Amino acid sequence: MNWDVLLSMAENFAKVALVSVGGISIMIPEIHRQVVEVNVWMNNAQFASAFALSQVAPGPNILLMSLVGWRVAGWAGMLVATAATIIPTSMLSVLANRLENQLTHAKWYSVARKSLPPLVVGLIFSSAIVTAKATELETFGLIIVACVAAHFYFFKTNPLILILVSIVAGIVAGQFGVI
Amino acid sequence: MQHPTENFPSPPSSFFPRVPHTTPEVSLWNMFTGYVLVGLFGFGGISASMYYIAVEKRAWVSADDYTTSLALGQVLPGPGLMNTCIIVADKFHGLKGVLVALIGLLLFPLLILLGVVTVYDRYAYLPAVQHATYAAAAASVGLIFGTGLKLAKVIIKSKSALFFMACAFVAIAVFKLPMFETMLVLAALSIFVGYREDTP
Is residue A21 classed as helix, strand or coil in its secondary structure? Predict the structure, then answer.
């Protein structure tokens, strides 16, 4: 077992999770940077397939981290990646819950609630760009991106339905050699 | 499905005091099975399934209390909805509840995911599987984009908001700076600016 990889993964994932205000999808660029660019534990194609598979399966989006951990270092990697992502932040949530009254009346809390969301929006767009690059999308993929984004923006559709429709479109387009 | 009034009485917890809360007692088992369902129904994220189970189906918390927990979960770092799930679990059973919630939420989705991945690895050479994966990834990118657009419409209403959105984007997507340090600096700056805008 490669303890160095596990330790470094635990440290990286925990650090990223602890600054990811606004959900798992904003962790993606940094996880991609760590796993594909800095440490070269997997390549772009492997990262893209992990991303796609984690979106298709049910459950919290954090499963992407579990899957990356699994690909990098098997069962131990999966446990380490999952635990590093959720345990520090869970403990913070418990603490915040117990201090809820002091917290929600503090001035900086209300300021933070208004000030942090713009950063989150910037990070979400970064996620979209980084995943699009990792997946090496070409014309057909970009059309899907545009259609899904527009549909999701204007209508309240279940994300899974959009993914399933896209999968069918992808398979059909593949049959006709469009992809 | 259990009705909220038929819950088993919950044993007194020996953990340190929790935030007092006026909700019906919820047994650990009820909580575990509820979180299992939240995980299994949670396609494309668990926000809809968590609301359905915690507020509508099992009535663990009122819609009002849930909104408070939701807001708190979103301000905290990490997976926002899971934070909310943990906050709700902590209200009833403390750390024991948190552990049960995490296991309930993750166990089955993880097993399903590993099943999907095993099947995928076996058939990944087939063109149809490659096209399907490619399309699913593209659709997921589209969903992230759509989420960003939805949020931007609500959130980006001032010049400073636009500025900080652009800073975060350029730092991470263009310059690929390390996120931990970048976020600490940007969060501190944006809270500082927000504080000054708030205090006349």
Answer: strand
Residue A70 lies in a domain: yes
**Cα A89–chain centre separation:** 15
6-65 in A: which are within 8 Å (CB) of B? 15-25, 27, 29-30, 33, 37, 48-49, 51-63
Measure the CA–CA gap between B147 and B127, rounded to whole angstroms: 30
In this prediction the ipTM stands at 0.90
DSSP B30-88: HHHHHHHHHHHH-TT-SHHHHHIIIIIIS-SS-HHHHHHHHHHHHHSBS-HHHHHHHHH
Which of B98, B121, B144 lies at the terminal end of a domain, its last residue? B121
Q: Report whether A169 contacts A147 (CB < 8 A).
A: no
How confident is the model over A7-19, as pLDDT tens digits? Answer: 999 999 999 999 8
| DSSP secondary structure code for residue B18 in this structure | P
- Nearest chain A residue to B19 by CA: give it: A98
Q: Is A83 on the interface with B (CB under 8 A)?
A: no
Within a 10 A sphere around the Cβ of B178, how many other Cβ atoms?
Answer: 16
Tens-digit pLDDT profile for residues A48-94: 999 999 888 888 888 999 999 999 999 999 999 999 999 999 999 99
* Owning domain of residue B177: 156-200
| Residue whose structure tokens are 């189906």 | B57
| Confidence band, pLDDT 50/70/90 cuts, at residue B12 | very low
pLDDT above 90 coverage of chain B, percent? 56
Whether residue B137 sits in one domain with residue B88 = no
